[in-house]
Each structure stands twice: as structure tokens, then as C-alpha cells.
Amino acid sequence: MNNIPEVKLGLVAVSRDCFPMSLSASRKAAVLAAYDGEIFDCPTIIENDVDMRKALDEVNAAGCNALVVYLGNFGPESPETLIAKYFNGPVMFVAAAEENTAVLLDDRGDAYCGMLNCSYNLKLRNIRAYIPENPVGDPEDVAKMIKEFIPIARAVIGLSRLKIFSFGPRPWDFLACNAPIKRLYDLGVEIQENSELDLYEAYRNHDNDPRIPDKIREMEEELGEGNKMPGILPRLAQFELTLLDWARDNKGEREYVIFANKCWPAFERLFGFVPCYVNSRLTGMGMPVSCEVDIYGALSEYIGTCVSDDIVTLLDINNTVPKEMYESEIRPNWDYKLTDTFMGFHCGNTNLSKLAFGEIKFQKIQKRALEPDTEPDITRGTLEGDIAPGEITFYRLQSTADAQLKAYVAEGEILPVRTQSFGGIGVFAIPEMGRFYRHVLVGKGYPHHGAVAFGHFGKLLFEVFKYLGVTDIGFNQPAGMMYPEENPFA
Q1: Contact 301, 287 (CB under 8 A)
Q2: Quick one: 261 and 144 in the same domain?
Q3: How do the residues of the chain divide into helix, strand and coil, expressed in percent and rounded to 5?
Q4: In contact, 43 and 11? CB cutoff 8 Å
Q5: How many structural domains comprise the chain?
Q6: Residues 439 and 373 placed together within one structural domain of the fold
Q7: What contacts 310, CB < 8 A, 6 or more positions away?
Q8: pLDDT one-digit tens code per residue, 361-406
Q9: Where are the beta strands (DSSP E) in 247-402?
Q10: What is the domain extent for residue 210?
């Protein structure tokens, strides 16, 4: 992954002046001993705002882009929150638990109390910071919190240095992917909206690019026996080089880039292929390319890439599992209701490494419209196969029509059940999916695309969305926990 940040952590301790500074120093040393990763040990312990400025200079000089502020005792509420105000990166606040009964008489730190004043002061100053669910703990607890902070920090840093390239307006029939861009700027994300003609011109400028043969060989090596339509690879290789060069030449002062591209219906007629396989490959490089100009879909994918440090995908929440398949393949083997299951699908944009098997094919739906009576040509280029079984997190960050940020997160799994269908597709199971579908996805007006991270990352994604200021975060509520608008008599 060369398109996501490397987190460089700093640890700074704070001490209230009526408590011994040695208490914060010794407790910080214990945290450092328990932590098994790289972290900069800030030499200055903050007691006042002068110390705050000195510590800020030290963490900046060390190249830190994320900061852990540690309350070894009660802590000085203003200086400890001001460093979060002035530090240019995500900040986490954690605090020390009392070690044993022996410390309760002379060496009690009262950080449990100090965290309350810290959180209050952060809100007084409108400072955004991350406070874990259980922010007070012993050195091993704090070390674990620091580990969990890294993927959250990576996502926040990534968004602050991200540019989205979009090509073309959203298709008429997919206005659900409408993307008010105001909230992108609020998140620190830049967007460069372009015409499809810009992309077509760039593609034509890569005709006969001398790098195309090497790119074809790279694709052939990746596909192996899945290289079922080798004649389309020259066009796909040319397109991949086009996108990579566009990212290099247009990212400007930004460090990270992603794409939201129009992919039908005029695309096939002009470019002569469908771009799904190329999209899958760039996503595998940590540079997600969403379909149908889904800007917030691409943004969601990028957040998941940062959090999971792995490849993600974007799928339609597509179709129900037939009762026949449920009765024969699912009910005898898993404790899921039929309404807990569905199929996630896209034409062929899921990276090969996330498929149980995969091969280059043609886009069946587009062929009906564009090449109904001929062998597939311009509709070739999908990467098709069943998605590999395993744990997943389905999630999305979205701006509503009135430019309000909201999100959802739901954990589940892909079942090892053959889909017997086309495209990049899998049989998904999410507990209480039926109610989640009705009261979150339908009830709150989410579009049909959802991002998929391969593993259970609900806790971390939820914390990222909270850090970004999202207050409406839906999830698949368990049975017995009603949604606000759920009919109690249903």
C-alpha cells in the first residue's frame, strides 16, 4: 500500500502542578515499556502552557503526525488540551489507573477525575480529539489503546492529505450517488471534478505508449488461468497507465489520491472496454476507483483501506438470496434467518486477491444493450468470480442532499456458498440485516453502494466516523433493540 500514510506517533505526558511530576514520568516509562511499537518519547512533561509549546516543538521536530497525550496524574486541563489545538494531526487522550493499594495514600494520581476535566475543556475549546471507550488503564491497557489508535490516526491523516479525481457527471439513473462536495472540504479532502472528455483525451494520448507491453505482462502474470480474454488487455493496460499518470501529474500538493469514475453507458462505445479490472488493480494499490462517479463510495473505500491496511471493495447491496439456496445451502449450516442474507455484487471491480476464483469476462448487462447480437468486444474487461468467504465489515460515509454527514457500520461475513451468478459477487450474512436494511439503509436514504472491508473493523470505523464529527452512525441493532421509527406492533 503506497497510497496511505505512515503513522509516526508521539507520546507526551502531562502533570498537574500540585501532583508530583515524577508520578507522570514513572507511569509514562511503564507505558513505553509495555508498548512494543515505535513511538517518540517526548522529553518535556507538560505542566503549563510554556511546557506545552516546548513539547509541541519537540514532537514536531521528531516528525510526529499523530499524538498520544497521557495523563499520568490529574493533569493540567488547559495546557493538555491546547497541545491538541495546535498539533497538526490526530490526538488521543488516555489516562493512568492507580497501580495498587500501596499508592492510594501518597502516590494517588486521580487521572480518572482529570479525564473528566480534560474532556470538558476540549469541548469548551471546540477541539476534536479521540478518547477511547475506556480511556483509563494500566500500562498494558494504555499500550493496547495506542495500538488501536494507529489505524484511526492513519485514516484521519489520510483524509487531510487526500484528493479525489472524478470523471463525468453521475448517470441519470444513479442520482442516488449524488455527492454534495461541501462536506468533503469540511473533512479536509480536495476534489478535482473532470469531464469524461478529459479522461478520453488522456487515454488517446497514451496510444502506443511504450510501457503497454510491460503492463500487459504484469496483468498476464496476475491473472494466470483467469486470463480468458487476452485480446482486451492492451486496452486495459493503456487505461491503467492513463489513470496512474493522471494521479501523478494532477495530485499537486496532496499526497494521496483516489478516483470516482463514470463507467457507462457511453464509456464502452468510446473507450472500447469496461474498466472494472483496472479499477480492481488500482484498488489493490491502495488507490480505490469507485464506479458510477460515486464520490462518497470512493471516500468510504479509502477510509477502510487506511483502517484495515488492506484492500477493500465497493459493492451494490444487490439482491436477495433465493429461498431455494437458503434452504439447501445456508439454513442447515448457519444460524442465520433468510432476511439476514443478501448478495453483494458489482460488475467486476473486486481485487483478484479477494476472490475465491477470478477471470476476465464481459459485462453481461451492458452486452445486452450494446452488443446484443455479436461476440463481446467493447463490453469485455470485468473481473468476475465469487468473493472469498470470511469476515467482513459493510460500511459507508455519506453526505445527504442537505449536506449532512452520516454513516453506517455493520459486521458480518461472506459465506462459502457458490453464488451461481455473474460478476464479482458473494453471499453475505449480517445479523438482523432485514431490520438494518429497512431502518438504516432504506429509512435514512442511503444509496445502493456499500464499501466492504475484509475483516471485522466495526469498532475502528465507528471511532473514525466519530472523530470526523459524524453524529448519525447507524449499525445493525440486535433483536430486542428497536430503531427509533421501528413499528413496535410489526
Answers
A1: no
A2: no
A3: 40, 20, 35
A4: no
A5: 2
A6: yes
A7: 1, 453, 454, 455
A8: 999 888 888 899 899 999 999 999 999 999 999 999 999 888 899 9
A9: 256-261, 289-290, 312-319, 341-346, 359-362, 380-386, 390-399
A10: 161-475
